């Protein structure tokens, strides 16, 4: 697991349009990288919807939002179209980026164990350093919490 104060791991994966996106594309910009388990599930839909509603507020403050899940480009495109998502959703189909950030691992749900993404968010400053980590996110209200933490970090 990476820690607060660590640099963002270097990665390159596709967004919902199939374009390559690199972690270095966001250097010099404040940004939030949020990992979520799956497109179109209730919690993930809530989280994406709240970030979408607040997206203009984030942009006004010079903050980019980046969502990452193991879903493929086609799923992300459908999710963006249906939900009106304007920020990048990245397709971590091989779970490489999720592993780099330490969010891929064993999960339990209703007595069943399986491998998956733990809903987590990483706040990154202009220098590419992680200054806050939310290791187990509750989807509802998270966008507002992220914005408040960015604003109080100035």
Topology:
Elements lengths: L11 E4 L4 E3 L7 E6 L6 H19 L2 E7 L3 H11 L5 E3 L4 H6 L2 E6 L2 E6 L2 E5 L5 E5 L7 H11 L2
Trace the largest sheet across and list its strands.
2-1-5-4-3-8-9
By CATH reckoning, the class would read: Alpha Beta
Largest sheet: 7 strands, mixed
Helix segment tally: 4
Q: What would you say the CATH architecture is?
A: 3-Layer(aba) Sandwich
Envelope shape = globular
Order of helices and strands: EEEHEHEHEEEEH
The tally of structural domains comes to 1
Distance between the termini: 26 Å
Explain this structure:
This protein has a single domain (12-16, 29-152), classed as Glutaredoxin. It is 31% helix and 29% strand. The chain has 154 residues and is an alpha+beta fold. It is built from 4 helices and 9 strands. A 7-stranded mixed sheet has the order 2-1-5-4-3-8-9, with helices on one face. A two-stranded antiparallel ribbon has the order 6-7. The chain starts with 11 loop residues before the first strand and ends with a helix.
